[in-house]
Each structure stands twice: as C-alpha cells, then as structure tokens.
Amino acid sequence: MKKVAIPPMxxxxxxxxxxxxxxxxxDSHDICPHCGGELKNHDIKKKKxxxxxxxxxxENITVNIRRLRxxxxxxxxxxxxPFYDNIRLGSPIVDFCTLNLRIHxxxxxxxxxxxxxxxxxxxxxxxLKKNSNPGDIPYIEFHGILFPLxxxxxxxxxxxxxxxxxxxxxxxxxxxxxxxxx
Length: 182
Ligand SMILES: [Zn+2]
Hints:
The chain is α+β, with helices and mostly antiparallel strands. The protein has six helices and seven strands.
C-alpha cells in the first residue's frame, strides 16, 4: 500500500474547515430561479455534509440550509449551499474525490481522507465518477494528492458568507488567493 503523506499545515486547514462548517446556516439567496419572484423565509433544513472521525467515533457534520418560498409562483427554493444536485456529500469533499479519481483508485482516496479524519466509503467515491466533470476544479498538488481550493478554503468561505449576504459565489473560489494563510 502507498503511504499517505499530507503536510500537517494542509491537514489542519482541511480538518478545521470541516469542523467549522458544522452547524453553519446557509441562507444567502437571490430571486426565485423559476420566475424571478421575491423569496420569503420558509424553514431551515438540516443536511449531512460528511462524517468525521472524532476520538475514534464517527460523527456527522451537518449544515443548516434555509428554504424559501416564492411569493409569486409559490415554489420552494433552497438557499445557496455547498452541495451538488442529487449528491448527498458536501461539494468540497466531492471535488476532492473526483479530482483524485484521475490518479488514484477509490480505496486509496478513502484512505487519504481517513488520514484527515474524514470518512467516505470507496463505493461512494466510485459512484461519483460518472456524474462529475473535474476538468475545471482549481486545485493545488502536494505529494501526489490533488487538493481542491474549495476544500482548502472552507473556513475562509464561511467568513465571507457571514460578511456578505447574498453572495452567490460561495464555494466557487477560482482565482482566490490561498498563498497567505497560516
Ligand atoms: Zn417563483
């Protein structure tokens, strides 16, 4: 088996980011995507982001996502959140898996994630292969592992989300400076 070597600074940034997202409320939104109508608050849904290993025990990391009702067409709309359609795993984790599927088998990717205390089954990782296009995910490589900026920048994105309401570009962090952290 190949050994997993991740610089401690990188694993700290990722683990802290995932821990920070636990319980975060995503509520920024724009107008109704169906008709352009005005949205009003409806309720808040809890969604699992990923499972982490904490003191040897699995623990769910969940986020809260506001749902809004269109005043005009009455449809329910989710606020912007770090998920892809129909994938029940946080998008930065999906980005990590789909990028590394280019160069590593799924069981090795699962092992890399485990070394970050992030638990994702190889079968889940394999299932991401068909519905993803990792071509345009920005990343940094360390020791043969591809780290998407979306995963390295979770904490920073949460701070920006708190500062600017209605920021549609959360988790689309292309080109954002990552060289100055820590
Ligand atoms: Zn509408």
